[in-house]
Amino acid sequence: MTLFDRAAAVIPGGVNSPVRAFNGVGGDPLFLVSASGPRVTDSAGREYVDLVGSWGPALLGHAHPEVVAAVQEAAARGLSFGAPTPGEIELAELIRERVGVAELVRLVSTGTEATMTALRVARGFTGRDLIIKFAGHYHGHSDGLLAEAGSGVATLSLPGSAGVPAAFAAQTIVIGYNDLDAVRAAFAAHPGRIAAVITEAAAANMGVVAPNPGFNAAVAEIAHAEGALFIADEVLTGFRVGPAGWWGLEGGWTPDLLTFGKVIGGGLPVAALAGRADVMRMLAPAGPVYQAGTLSGNPVAVAAGAATLRLADGGVYARVDAAADTIAEAVRAALAAEGVPVAVQRAGNLFSFAFGSPGECGWSGPGPRTYDEVKAAQAWRYPPFFHAMLDAGVNLPPSAFEAWFVSAAHDDAAVEQILAALPAAARAAAAA
Ligand code: PMP
């Protein structure tokens, strides 16, 4: 009996998060037993260079010794108290130091909680019910946010989720990404009823699709002119694409609320919503919007997060950016050498690959700019490419709809191993 058979007998689908299944590429998922720096090791003892990075948290690489030490020290002092701790203040201060618009920070355990709560705060603050989200963006699995969501929902080709009451779904207006006219039209169609627009600061759950230049600023301006809030979901981009996330990298817009996750927990469950003090003071016990969590601001988790943020200096981002540039360009070149058309999709150090060309796929840019355009890509070339890389010891995201995650631990040896695997993978993609 394989581990996957055992898992499937006790866990639905054999996985505790659908993105870990190999539905998008075929085959059984690897079961990992350890990880260090740029590498992961599976249950058969095989080592892989990893470009999943726990789906984002592993900015420094896996199991950075100083982060592990911080976790061990915190764990030795106690695992959870259900009372305030100094560590929570430290993490909130580290977040605010880097992202000035995060005036107040509420720590939660998952990105799903962060965005779900941000919507409740926005509704409480504005007294309005409707939310605008963009097709292909993923904001976690709360009821109102699964319509035309990216990530695993896209990989499984689902329009949304069963089990979401129609009345809840009706509170979410889904419109095309990078389409300002659609934003204006939605506000015009529902005057005075829209509480907030939520957007991935740069979309990275339908593959990577950066916002058009000025898009975030224009959406924020439109929302504010209509009395609505602008919520930037930086769960994935925050503290990854730069020390102040996509907000810091792009500049020129002011969110009312932001959401963070992944990197701020350094591999343990920490996420946050943050933003304007007057809006954040809606949260209980300061205000009337209720939110709570037994393990919120858990002392071990915040120690991992704070250690990670303290270590994430300019040198870390320079290393991640350089490795991302090298790998993205090498993939493009390897595919070009085999005559495989591909668009390299970038948002800072995040990247993914859309197979196809504007002519074949009807893209409005050099690569896809919207979810419909992403779905027109030749994604069938990805599974053979993925498996060829895996056979050569490189662990890629098991879906064409996910970003690749590089870490500061991706040294020359790790990058060389990736580059060496590419020619055979490009041939496999060409033969598909
Ligand atoms: N928002 C974004 C942009 C994300 O990428 C994710 C997770 N991939 C989430 C929210 C949800 O976070 P979590 O999986 O921690 O609930």
Automatic annotation (TrEMBL):
UniProt-recorded Gene Ontology molecular function terms: glutamate-1-semialdehyde 2,1-aminomutase activity; pyridoxal phosphate binding; transaminase activity
Presence of the UniProt keyword Isomerase in the record: yes
GO BP term, pick one: protoporphyrinogen IX biosynthetic process
Pfam families in alphabetical order: Aminotran_3
Catalytic activity, reaction form: (S)-4-amino-5-oxopentanoate = 5-aminolevulinate
Keywords: Cytoplasm, Isomerase, Porphyrin biosynthesis, Pyridoxal phosphate
Compartments where found: Cytoplasm
GO cellular component, one term: cytoplasm
UniProt entry tagged with the keyword Cell membrane: no
EC supergroup of this enzyme: isomerase
PROSITE patterns hit by this protein: AA_TRANSFER_CLASS_3 (PS00600)
Main location: cytoplasm
Co-factor(s): pyridoxal 5'-phosphate
Pathway(s) where this gene product acts: Porphyrin-containing compound metabolism; protoporphyrin-IX biosynthesis; 5-aminolevulinate from L-glutamyl-tRNA(Glu): step 2/2
Superkingdom of origin: Bacteria
Enzyme Commission number(s): 5.4.3.8
Annotated coiled-coil segments of the chain: none
Modified residue annotations for N6-(pyridoxal phosphate)lysine: K262
Record text on subunit structure and interactions: Homodimer.
The family this protein is said to belong to: Belongs to the class-III pyridoxal-phosphate-dependent aminotransferase family. HemL subfamily.
Name the record gives this protein: Glutamate-1-semialdehyde 2,1-aminomutase
Species this chain originates from: Occultella aeris
